[in-house]
Amino acid sequence: MSVEKIPVKKARPNDYTSEHHPVWCPGCGHFFILRALTKALAWLNLDKENIGLVSGIGCSSRLPAYLDVYGFHGVHGRALALASGLKLARPDLTVIAAGGDGDGYSIGGNHFIHACRRNMDITYIVMDNEVYGMTKGQPSPTSDPDWHSKLAPKGTGLARFNPMGIALASGASFIARGFSGDPNGLTKILTEAIEHKGFSLVEIKSPCVTFRPEQKDWHHAMRLMNVTLTANPMEAAQAIYGSDGFDTGIFFQADMPVYEAEAANEKPHSDSASMESIEKALLV
Ligand SMILES: Cc1ncc(C[n+]2csc(CCOP(=O)(O)OP(=O)(O)O)c2C)c(N)n1
Ligand code: SF4
Q1: What's the CA gap between 46 and 277, in Å, rounded?
Q2: Cα-trace Rg, the chain
Q3: Which CATH number belongs to the domain containing residue 107 in this structure?
Q4: Can you tell me the distance from the alpha carbon of 36 to that of 152, in angstroms, rounded to the nearest whole number?
Q5: Does a structural domain hold residue 110?
Q6: Which ligand 1 atom lies nearest to the CA of residue 140?
Q7: Position 229 pLDDT exceeds 50
Q8: Is the Cβ atom of 33 under 6 angstroms away from ligand 2?
Protein backbone atom coordinates (compact mmCIF):
# COMPACT_ATOMS: atom_id res chain seq x y z
CA MET A 1 0.00 0.00 0.00
CA SER A 2 1.46 3.37 -0.95
CA VAL A 3 1.74 5.98 1.75
CA GLU A 4 0.47 9.32 0.49
CA LYS A 5 2.59 12.33 1.33
CA ILE A 6 0.66 15.11 3.04
CA PRO A 7 2.00 18.34 1.55
CA VAL A 8 3.08 20.90 4.13
CA LYS A 9 1.57 24.27 3.26
CA LYS A 10 4.27 26.92 3.11
CA ALA A 11 3.05 30.32 4.25
CA ARG A 12 3.66 33.48 2.23
CA PRO A 13 4.25 36.96 3.70
CA ASN A 14 0.90 38.22 2.40
CA ASP A 15 -0.89 35.51 4.39
CA TYR A 16 -0.09 37.53 7.51
CA THR A 17 -1.27 40.97 6.33
CA SER A 18 -4.73 42.28 7.24
CA GLU A 19 -7.16 44.09 4.95
CA HIS A 20 -6.28 47.45 6.54
CA HIS A 21 -3.89 49.68 4.65
CA PRO A 22 -1.36 51.45 6.94
CA VAL A 23 -2.10 55.13 7.53
CA TRP A 24 1.60 55.93 8.04
CA CYS A 25 3.10 58.86 6.11
CA PRO A 26 4.50 57.85 2.71
CA GLY A 27 8.15 56.87 3.20
CA CYS A 28 7.84 56.14 6.94
CA GLY A 29 10.30 53.42 7.98
CA HIS A 30 7.56 51.49 9.77
CA PHE A 31 6.20 50.19 6.40
CA PHE A 32 9.38 48.22 5.82
CA ILE A 33 9.34 46.74 9.32
CA LEU A 34 5.80 45.49 8.74
CA ARG A 35 6.97 43.83 5.54
CA ALA A 36 10.05 42.28 7.14
CA LEU A 37 7.94 40.91 9.99
CA THR A 38 5.49 39.22 7.61
CA LYS A 39 8.46 37.72 5.77
CA ALA A 40 9.93 36.39 9.02
CA LEU A 41 6.60 34.86 10.07
CA ALA A 42 6.28 33.24 6.65
CA TRP A 43 9.82 31.95 6.80
CA LEU A 44 9.06 30.35 10.16
CA ASN A 45 5.76 29.08 8.72
CA LEU A 46 3.94 29.98 11.94
CA ASP A 47 0.21 29.38 12.27
CA LYS A 48 -1.56 32.73 12.46
CA GLU A 49 -3.82 31.61 15.27
CA ASN A 50 -0.77 30.88 17.44
CA ILE A 51 0.68 34.39 17.28
CA GLY A 52 -0.16 37.20 19.73
CA LEU A 53 1.03 40.68 18.74
CA VAL A 54 0.70 43.34 21.44
CA SER A 55 1.52 47.04 21.21
CA GLY A 56 1.30 50.32 23.11
CA ILE A 57 0.41 53.67 21.54
CA GLY A 58 2.12 55.57 18.73
CA CYS A 59 2.41 55.39 14.96
CA SER A 60 4.56 52.25 15.37
CA SER A 61 2.05 50.72 17.79
CA ARG A 62 -0.54 50.56 15.02
CA LEU A 63 1.28 47.46 13.79
CA PRO A 64 -1.23 44.84 15.11
CA ALA A 65 -3.99 46.35 12.95
CA TYR A 66 -2.00 45.61 9.82
CA LEU A 67 -1.34 41.95 10.55
CA ASP A 68 -3.84 39.13 10.34
CA VAL A 69 -2.78 37.55 13.66
CA TYR A 70 -4.26 37.97 17.13
CA GLY A 71 -3.53 41.56 18.09
CA PHE A 72 -3.97 43.87 21.04
CA HIS A 73 -3.51 47.63 20.69
CA GLY A 74 -2.89 48.46 24.33
CA VAL A 75 -2.21 51.64 26.25
CA HIS A 76 0.83 53.87 26.09
CA GLY A 77 3.95 52.18 27.51
CA ARG A 78 2.21 49.00 28.60
CA ALA A 79 2.93 46.66 25.68
CA LEU A 80 5.41 44.57 27.66
CA ALA A 81 3.13 44.27 30.68
CA LEU A 82 0.39 42.97 28.39
CA ALA A 83 2.77 40.70 26.51
CA SER A 84 4.12 39.24 29.77
CA GLY A 85 0.61 38.47 31.00
CA LEU A 86 -0.28 36.89 27.68
CA LYS A 87 2.82 34.71 27.66
CA LEU A 88 2.20 33.57 31.25
CA ALA A 89 -1.42 32.70 30.50
CA ARG A 90 -0.73 31.15 27.09
CA PRO A 91 2.86 29.86 27.03
CA ASP A 92 2.07 27.98 23.82
CA LEU A 93 1.73 31.23 21.82
CA THR A 94 4.46 33.08 19.95
CA VAL A 95 4.25 36.45 21.70
CA ILE A 96 5.55 39.59 20.01
CA ALA A 97 5.42 43.10 21.48
CA ALA A 98 5.94 46.17 19.30
CA GLY A 99 6.09 49.93 19.67
CA GLY A 100 8.20 53.04 19.45
CA ASP A 101 11.09 54.52 21.41
CA GLY A 102 8.75 56.94 23.20
CA ASP A 103 6.30 54.22 24.12
CA GLY A 104 8.88 51.66 25.21
CA TYR A 105 11.72 53.64 26.73
CA SER A 106 9.96 56.60 28.30
CA ILE A 107 6.58 55.78 29.80
CA GLY A 108 7.31 52.05 29.36
CA GLY A 109 10.87 52.21 30.75
CA ASN A 110 10.17 50.35 33.96
CA HIS A 111 8.35 47.55 32.15
CA PHE A 112 11.24 47.35 29.71
CA ILE A 113 13.86 46.82 32.41
CA HIS A 114 11.84 44.16 34.22
CA ALA A 115 10.82 42.35 31.04
CA CYS A 116 14.54 42.02 30.24
CA ARG A 117 15.17 40.85 33.79
CA ARG A 118 12.50 38.14 33.63
CA ASN A 119 13.83 36.98 30.27
CA MET A 120 10.44 35.62 29.28
CA ASP A 121 10.11 34.17 25.80
CA ILE A 122 8.90 37.37 24.10
CA THR A 123 10.20 39.23 21.05
CA TYR A 124 10.18 43.01 21.52
CA ILE A 125 10.34 45.08 18.34
CA VAL A 126 11.14 48.75 18.90
CA MET A 127 10.68 50.98 15.85
CA ASP A 128 13.10 53.71 16.89
CA ASN A 129 12.88 57.09 15.12
CA GLU A 130 14.28 59.11 18.04
CA VAL A 131 11.06 61.13 18.26
CA TYR A 132 7.43 60.92 19.32
CA GLY A 133 5.94 60.76 15.83
CA MET A 134 2.26 60.41 16.60
CA THR A 135 2.16 63.40 18.95
CA LYS A 136 3.96 65.60 16.44
CA GLY A 137 7.62 65.67 17.20
CA GLN A 138 8.55 65.81 20.88
CA PRO A 139 12.04 64.55 21.77
CA SER A 140 12.15 60.96 23.01
CA PRO A 141 14.68 59.20 25.28
CA THR A 142 16.78 58.29 22.22
CA SER A 143 16.87 61.82 20.73
CA ASP A 144 20.30 63.45 20.65
CA PRO A 145 20.72 66.07 23.41
CA ASP A 146 21.17 68.89 20.89
CA TRP A 147 18.30 67.96 18.55
CA HIS A 148 16.61 71.31 18.05
CA SER A 149 12.85 71.34 17.49
CA LYS A 150 9.95 73.74 18.02
CA LEU A 151 9.05 71.80 21.14
CA ALA A 152 12.60 71.70 22.53
CA PRO A 153 14.54 74.69 21.20
CA LYS A 154 18.31 73.96 21.31
CA GLY A 155 17.52 70.40 22.39
CA THR A 156 16.90 68.79 25.74
CA GLY A 157 20.54 68.70 26.81
CA LEU A 158 19.92 65.19 28.10
CA ALA A 159 22.17 62.23 27.30
CA ARG A 160 20.65 59.53 25.10
CA PHE A 161 19.14 56.45 26.68
CA ASN A 162 21.07 53.35 25.53
CA PRO A 163 18.36 50.66 25.12
CA MET A 164 20.73 47.87 24.10
CA GLY A 165 23.12 48.59 26.97
CA ILE A 166 20.23 48.65 29.40
CA ALA A 167 18.80 45.42 27.96
CA LEU A 168 22.17 43.71 28.43
CA ALA A 169 22.58 44.99 31.99
CA SER A 170 19.02 43.98 32.86
CA GLY A 171 19.21 40.36 31.68
CA ALA A 172 17.84 40.16 28.11
CA SER A 173 19.27 37.14 26.31
CA PHE A 174 19.03 38.36 22.68
CA ILE A 175 19.93 41.89 21.60
CA ALA A 176 20.02 43.11 18.01
CA ARG A 177 19.85 46.26 15.93
CA GLY A 178 18.23 46.37 12.49
CA PHE A 179 17.50 49.05 9.91
CA SER A 180 14.14 49.45 8.21
CA GLY A 181 15.94 50.11 4.92
CA ASP A 182 17.62 46.69 4.98
CA PRO A 183 14.75 44.24 4.36
CA ASN A 184 16.92 41.13 4.09
CA GLY A 185 19.03 41.79 7.16
CA LEU A 186 15.96 42.80 9.15
CA THR A 187 14.02 39.69 8.14
CA LYS A 188 16.96 37.55 9.23
CA ILE A 189 17.23 39.32 12.59
CA LEU A 190 13.49 39.07 13.25
CA THR A 191 13.46 35.40 12.32
CA GLU A 192 16.30 34.65 14.73
CA ALA A 193 14.71 36.78 17.45
CA ILE A 194 11.36 34.99 17.24
CA GLU A 195 13.09 31.61 17.25
CA HIS A 196 15.23 32.53 20.25
CA LYS A 197 14.03 31.19 23.59
CA GLY A 198 14.06 34.16 25.96
CA PHE A 199 13.56 37.92 25.80
CA SER A 200 14.69 39.33 22.44
CA LEU A 201 15.13 43.06 21.94
CA VAL A 202 15.17 44.08 18.29
CA GLU A 203 15.98 47.79 18.09
CA ILE A 204 15.17 49.01 14.59
CA LYS A 205 16.22 52.36 13.18
CA SER A 206 13.09 53.53 11.38
CA PRO A 207 13.10 57.05 9.91
CA CYS A 208 10.23 59.43 10.74
CA VAL A 209 10.23 61.30 7.45
CA THR A 210 7.76 63.90 8.72
CA PHE A 211 9.25 65.10 12.00
CA ARG A 212 12.87 63.99 11.45
CA PRO A 213 13.31 64.43 7.65
CA GLU A 214 17.09 64.39 8.07
CA GLN A 215 16.78 60.68 8.97
CA LYS A 216 16.21 59.98 5.25
CA ASP A 217 20.03 60.13 5.07
CA TRP A 218 20.49 57.29 7.55
CA HIS A 219 20.92 54.80 4.74
CA HIS A 220 24.25 56.47 3.83
CA ALA A 221 25.56 56.01 7.36
CA MET A 222 24.43 52.45 8.09
CA ARG A 223 26.95 49.61 8.30
CA LEU A 224 24.71 46.63 7.67
CA MET A 225 25.06 43.28 9.40
CA ASN A 226 28.68 43.93 10.36
CA VAL A 227 28.42 42.87 14.01
CA THR A 228 30.02 39.71 15.40
CA LEU A 229 27.60 37.69 17.48
CA THR A 230 28.76 36.80 20.97
CA ALA A 231 27.34 35.03 24.01
CA ASN A 232 29.85 36.81 26.24
CA PRO A 233 28.26 39.84 27.97
CA MET A 234 31.61 41.66 28.33
CA GLU A 235 32.27 41.41 24.59
CA ALA A 236 28.68 42.40 23.86
CA ALA A 237 28.98 45.45 26.14
CA GLN A 238 32.10 46.51 24.25
CA ALA A 239 30.33 46.14 20.90
CA ILE A 240 27.18 47.94 22.09
CA TYR A 241 28.98 50.84 23.76
CA GLY A 242 31.60 50.97 20.98
CA SER A 243 28.93 51.42 18.29
CA ASP A 244 27.80 54.85 17.14
CA GLY A 245 24.34 53.40 16.56
CA PHE A 246 24.77 52.69 12.85
CA ASP A 247 25.98 49.07 13.05
CA THR A 248 23.39 46.35 12.59
CA GLY A 249 23.24 42.67 13.42
CA ILE A 250 22.87 40.46 16.47
CA PHE A 251 25.11 41.80 19.24
CA PHE A 252 24.31 39.25 21.94
CA GLN A 253 22.60 35.88 22.16
CA ALA A 254 22.92 33.54 25.11
CA ASP A 255 21.19 30.57 26.61
CA MET A 256 19.89 31.98 29.91
CA PRO A 257 17.15 30.94 32.36
CA VAL A 258 13.73 31.86 31.02
CA TYR A 259 10.94 32.84 33.38
CA GLU A 260 7.92 30.57 33.00
CA ALA A 261 5.11 30.46 35.55
CA GLU A 262 4.48 26.89 36.65
CA ALA A 263 0.79 27.47 37.24
CA ALA A 264 0.37 29.11 33.86
CA ASN A 265 1.75 25.99 32.24
CA GLU A 266 -0.72 23.84 34.12
CA LYS A 267 -4.02 25.53 33.54
CA PRO A 268 -4.44 28.80 31.71
CA HIS A 269 -7.48 31.12 31.69
CA SER A 270 -10.15 31.47 34.35
CA ASP A 271 -8.76 29.30 37.14
CA SER A 272 -8.31 31.70 40.05
CA ALA A 273 -5.32 29.82 41.51
CA SER A 274 -3.40 30.22 38.30
CA MET A 275 -4.44 33.89 38.02
CA GLU A 276 -2.99 34.44 41.50
CA SER A 277 0.28 32.85 40.45
CA ILE A 278 0.40 35.02 37.35
CA GLU A 279 -0.14 38.15 39.41
CA LYS A 280 2.59 37.01 41.80
CA ALA A 281 4.94 36.29 38.93
CA LEU A 282 4.46 39.77 37.50
CA LEU A 283 5.54 41.26 40.83
CA VAL A 284 8.90 39.42 40.72
C1 LIG B 1 -0.70 57.82 29.06
C2 LIG B 1 -0.50 58.53 27.75
N3 LIG B 1 0.38 59.54 27.67
C4 LIG B 1 0.59 60.15 26.50
C5 LIG B 1 -0.11 59.78 25.38
C6 LIG B 1 0.11 60.51 24.09
N7 LIG B 1 0.95 59.78 23.14
C8 LIG B 1 0.39 59.02 22.19
S9 LIG B 1 1.53 58.37 21.15
C10 LIG B 1 2.79 59.13 21.98
C11 LIG B 1 4.22 59.01 21.53
C12 LIG B 1 4.52 57.88 20.64
O13 LIG B 1 5.86 57.93 20.25
P14 LIG B 1 6.68 56.65 19.88
O15 LIG B 1 6.40 55.56 20.83
O16 LIG B 1 8.11 57.03 19.75
O17 LIG B 1 6.08 56.16 18.50
P18 LIG B 1 6.03 56.79 17.03
O19 LIG B 1 4.74 57.53 16.96
O20 LIG B 1 7.22 57.69 16.88
O21 LIG B 1 6.08 55.61 16.13
C22 LIG B 1 2.31 59.85 23.06
C23 LIG B 1 3.14 60.63 24.00
C24 LIG B 1 -1.01 58.71 25.49
N25 LIG B 1 -1.69 58.26 24.44
N26 LIG B 1 -1.20 58.10 26.68
S1 SF4 C 1 4.65 60.87 11.86
FE2 SF4 C 1 6.63 59.89 11.54
S3 SF4 C 1 6.48 57.91 12.61
FE4 SF4 C 1 4.39 58.69 12.31
S5 SF4 C 1 3.70 57.76 10.37
FE6 SF4 C 1 4.54 59.79 9.89
S7 SF4 C 1 6.68 59.37 9.35
FE8 SF4 C 1 5.93 57.57 10.44
Answers
A1: 29
A2: 19
A3: 3.40.50.970
A4: 33
A5: yes
A6: 16
A7: yes
A8: no
The whole domain housing 69 covers 23-282
**Consecutive H or E run containing 87:** helix 79-89
User: Mean pLDDT across the chain, nearest whole number?
Assistant: 93
What is the tally of structural domains in the chain?
Answer: 1
Give the residue from 91, 100, 118, 144 showing the smallest Cα distance to 198: 118
Q: Is the pTM of this model over 0.90?
A: yes
129 inside domain: yes
**Is 85 contained in some domain?**
yes
Closest CA to 118 of 201, 232, 229, 230: 201
Task: Give the pLDDT score at 1.
Answer: 46
Whether the Cβ atoms of residue 25 and residue 209 lie closer than 8 Å to each other: yes
Longest dimension (CA), the chain: 79
Q: Confirm whether 3 is domain-assigned.
A: no
Q: Which residues contact 21 (CB under 8 A, 6 or more apart)?
A: none
Q: What contacts 95, CB < 8 A, 6 or more positions away?
A: 52, 54, 83, 86, 87, 121, 122, 123
Closest residue CA from atom 25 of ligand 1: 76
Q: Which phi and psi angles does 254 have, rounded to 5°?
A: -145, 155
Cα-to-centroid distance, 102 and ligand 2 (Å): 13
